[in-house]
Specification:
It is a single chain. The chain is mostly helical. It has one domain. The chain is built from four helices and no strands. 24% of the residues are buried.
Length: 149
């Protein structure tokens, strides 16, 4: 079985990977974008929003995995709720920001910020998916579990 130490290390490693992907995306956006301060400020705000949602979702989803790890505790409902909460944390803030940019707020926001939002959101989502798959494979191997048809 996975120890609590391995779970904490995997959670911390995933958080570090998400921060690294966000930093790389922000650096790319700042390097390729115009040098004006409003664009740079908006890019940093969007990156912070996407990173906050991704980290919150990662931590809540890991909590759900921890709750569901022991089926005898009867906490599967809490694990499902944690998974849904993670999805809401990841999805809602960027969606609200995109709605604001496409609505009246887009008039004061610099051009191209919506593309930064989309790029960062998708890159962080892909990173989270890869980390989740790797964690599931690692936990099944650690338990000695294998699937046979």
């Amino acid at each position: 079985m996975n120890s609590g130490r391995h779970d904490r290390a995997w959670t911390l490693g995933g958080a570090v990977a998400l921060v690294a992907v966000s930093a790389a995306g922000l650096t790319t956006a700042l390097a390729l974008g115009p040098p004006d301060p409003p664009y740079r400020t908006a890019a940093v705000v969007v990156a912070g929003l996407c990173l906050g949602g991704a980290l919150g979702a990662w931590l809540v989803a890991r909590l759900g995995d921890r709750l569901a790890a022991n089926p005898s505790t009867g906490r599967q409902g809490l694990a499902v709720a944690a998974g849904l909460g993670g999805i809401a944390l990841r999805f809602a803030p960027p969606l609200v920001m995109l709605a604001w940019l496409r609505g009246g707020g887009g008039a004061i926001a610099p051009a191209g910020v919506d593309r930064i939002l989309l790029g960062l959101y998708l890159s962080l989502l892909a990173t989270d998916i890869v980390l989740t798959i790797m964690g599931r494979l690692g936990s099944a191997a650690g338990r000695g579990g294998s699937r046979a048809n």
